[in-house]
Design goal:
Elements lengths: L1 E7 L4 E7 L4 E9 L6 E6 L4 E5 L5 H12 L15 E6 L10 E2 L2 H8 L9 H14 L4 E6 L9 H4 L5 H7 L8 H14 L8 E7 L3 E7 L2 E5 L20 H11 L3 H10 L2 H5 L7 H9 L3 H24 L5 E5 H6 L1 H9 L19 E3 L8 E5 L3 H18 L9
Parallel strand pairs: 1-6, 6-8, 9-12, 12-14
Antiparallel strand pairs: 1-2, 2-3, 3-4, 4-5, 7-8, 9-10, 10-11, 13-14
Length: 410
């Protein structure tokens, strides 16, 4: 089964073609600056590579370029559109409506549209990608894989805020958690790597990138996730503030004469390690280089980030009454050995001991804790596209057995 995986943003569209039987990536690429000047990159598993300026007025044109390239006699990996069995779409926010992956029907699109207020930057862009694919591939099965779905096993004690209950009832204000596709893939890959049954271990996944979250996964189900009603809550991130006292925002508004929209812009785009480093950078590689050169605020930003991660890990170990695996993933988690070491230095009370040489190894999956460590500490490369392809394949195969489930949460 050949699956086209689509991750659509407001002005970009990432894609991969994956053979679900072998899990081989046949081709992948990126459409950028859609509606502006257009940039297209493309690579196949046979070594064909393209990088060019290509005008794309909208997402439908971007999808058209992708399909034309995939079916090109010299550069493509399929001979016709019909060879794509399923299109798997990454969908960010499904609210409480979706606890699993679904066939995308008009009912699903309507339900997602109703969640637009919960993810105004993500859901509309995701739906644009869906509509573009439906326009050009009307007979191809479309499957939605939600970033929030894996987190729907959280109990009310974890997802409710200390607000009047009526606001949850009326507006569904609660913790949803994000990066669920990554957390699901990584937690299961960690158990597989360690020869464990995912349903019998307690794992804390640290998805550390420009957007960062931590997820507590107990016996295969999410107990808690550091992101909340939106992806703004939780850790200090690249440009996002993470946890902050709401009272400080009222104070800041009065002192600086800022309206609510200006405050939100600061919290989302001007805070995090960028703000702490006095606008030096939101890139941890640049902050690391600056720290070596004794840039005080760059060093402080990295220190605060590591401290916040360690606090969440400790709280989630308590929430699960123990932990078997702590896993680092995503851009920072996979590549910044110094950050990993600093985070783990706070966790020695858990019996964690890091092997400094292993901590500097690279690979798809590496155990960086030494033999004496009471908790396995791992670095695993996340693969959200593969997880989406697996989910899409599962839904497609399930339709043959249970056609009455079309459009319902799995």
């Amino acid at each position: 089964m050949k699956i086209l995986v689509i991750n659509s943003g407001s002005s970009s569209l990432k894609f991969q073609v994956i053979d679900s039987e072998t899990e081989r990536v046949l081709a992948k690429g990126l459409c950028e600056r859609i509606g502006i000047d257009g940039r297209f990159t493309y690579r196949t598993d046979t070594g064909i590579s393209l990088k060019e300026q290509t005008a794309m007025e909208n997402h439908t044109q971007a999808v058209h370029i992708i399909l034309d390239t995939l079916t090109d006699p010299e550069q493509g990996v399929i001979s016709k559109f019909g060879e794509i069995d399923v299109v798997g779409h990454r969908l960010v926010h499904g609210g409480e409506k979706f606890t699993g992956s679904v066939v995308i029907t008009q009912e699903v699109i309507q339900a997602m549209t109703e969640c637009n207020d919960l993810a105004p930057l993500h859901n509309p862009a995701n739906l644009v990608g869906v509509e573009a694919c439906r326009t050009l591939m009307p007979d191809t099965l479309m499957v939605g894989v939600f970033d929030t779905a894996f987190n729907q096993t959280m109990e009310p004690k974890a997802f409710l805020y200390g607000l009047p209950y009526q606001y949850y009832e009326k507006h569904k204000i609660r913790r949803y958690g994000f990066h669920g596709i990554s957390h699901r893939y990584v937690s299961r890959r960690a158990a597989q790597f360690m020869g464990q049954d995912p349903g019998r271990v307690k794992t804390i996944v640290c998805h550390l990138g420009n957007g960062a979250s931590i997820c507590a996964v107990k016996y295969g189900q999410v107990v808690d996730n550091s992101m909340g009603f939106t992806p703004l809550e939780g850790l200090v991130m690249g440009t996002r503030c993470g946890d902050v006292d709401p009272g400080a925002l009222e104070f800041l508004s009065k002192k600086e004469g800022l309206d609510f929209q200006q405050i939100m812009t600061i919290l989302n785009q001007e805070s995090g390690v960028l703000g702490i480093s006095k606008n030096f950078s939101s890139d941890f590689r640049e902050l690391k280089d600056a720290e070596i050169k004794y840039h005080e605020k760059a060093a402080l930003a990295r220190e605060i980030f590591a401290y916040k991660v360690a606090k969440y890990v400790g709280s989630y170990a308590a929430a699960m009454n123990g932990v078997d695996n702590i896993v680092f993933t995503a851009g920072i988690g996979e590549n910044d050995s110094d950050i990993r070491e600093e985070i783990c230095s706070y966790l020695e009370y858990l019996g964690i001991a890091i092997d400094e040489l292993k901590n500097r190894e690279e690979g798809e999956a590496v155990r960086i804790s030494d033999a004496s460590s009471k908790v396995n500490v791992l670095v695993i490369k996340t693969n959200e596209e593969l997880e989406i392809a697996r989910e899409a394949a599962t839904v497609a195969k399930g339709l043959k057995k249970r056609p009455e489930k079309v459009g319902k949460g799995s």
